[in-house]
Request: fold
Amino acid sequence: MEITKKLFVIILGLFVPICISAGEWNDKPIMCADETETFSAIKAKEEELIFKANQLTKVRNETGLAKKPVGVAVDMYVNPKTGTYTIIEFHPTYESYCIISYGVNFQVFIGGVQ
Reply:
């Protein structure tokens, strides 16, 4: 019986690190606004559009996070002189622009770290 308990504890110990290291979805506070307010802030920083993409985004439904992500437009604006940047996503259902990231010290590493 004692060997069975020890074996059980050893097997359990092998699986615990796997469970602990799993990623998890977090809520991140983001700011959303209409088109006028969003782009007046970008214009005030003199940032220019440098890329566009379609982002696959988890959204909430009545039961929590939807199983299928939805595609939303994501754009990045940069002021190369000041190094500021803003990344926004557009939600057409709500006609809302959300700033998902903004900051300073924008750098380009195309072709590898320089």
